[in-house]
Amino acid sequence: MGFIKGGEERGTAADMFRRHYWDTALAASDPVLRMLRDIAGIDHVLYGTDFPYLRRDLAAKSGQRILQSAALDDREKHAVLGKNAAQLLPRALKVG
Fold first, then answer.
1. How do residues 26-71 score in pLDDT, each as one tens digit?
2. Domain-wise residue ranges, the chain
3. 30 touches 6 (CB < 8 A)
4. Which of 63, 20, 64 is nearest to 39 (CA)?
5. Which of 32, 34, 21, 39 is closest to 87 using CA atoms?
6. pLDDT (tens digit per residue) in 9-31
7. Which pLDDT does position 96 carry in this prediction?
8. d(Cα 42, Cα 51) in Å, to the nearest integer?
């Protein structure tokens, strides 16, 4: 009693966190970026802004915060700012 049938087959909460994709909307600070990298893996972190619900100037600053982040190296910044999304949604982001 008290167990969810099949729960052991689903894995741990940590396994679930690694399967989900996370965006940076309203949370592009170094502590959050480090946590996402360490828990989910940088390949599951996507740039997001919540625009138009967030003012345009604040949304633009979130991208700058990622570019200036001391928590991520250049490869990780490139991944978050577009590479991960391009790999996840190749047809949606196809140019031409």
1. 888 999 999 999 999 999 999 998 888 888 898 888 899 999 999 9
2. 14-88
3. no
4. 20
5. 21
6. 777 877 888 889 999 988 889 99
7. 54
8. 22
Question: Does a cis peptide bond (omega within 30 degrees of 0) precede residue 90?
Answer: no
C-alpha span between 37 and 74 (Å, rounded): 14
Tokens coding 27: 């949370």
Q: HEC profile for the chain?
A: CCCCCCHHHHCCHHHHHHHCCEECCCCCCHHHHHHHHHHCCHHHEECCCCCCCCCHHHHHHHHHHHHCCCCCCHHHHHHHHHHHHHHHCCCCCCCC
CA separation, residue 85 to residues 11, 21, 57 (Å)? 26, 10, 22
Q: Does this model's pTM top 0.90? A: no
For residue 20, count other CB atoms closer than 10 A to its CB.
Answer: 8
Residues whose CB falls within 8 Å of the CB of residue 64, separated by 6 or more in sequence, listed in order: none
Report residue 53 as tokens.
């619900």
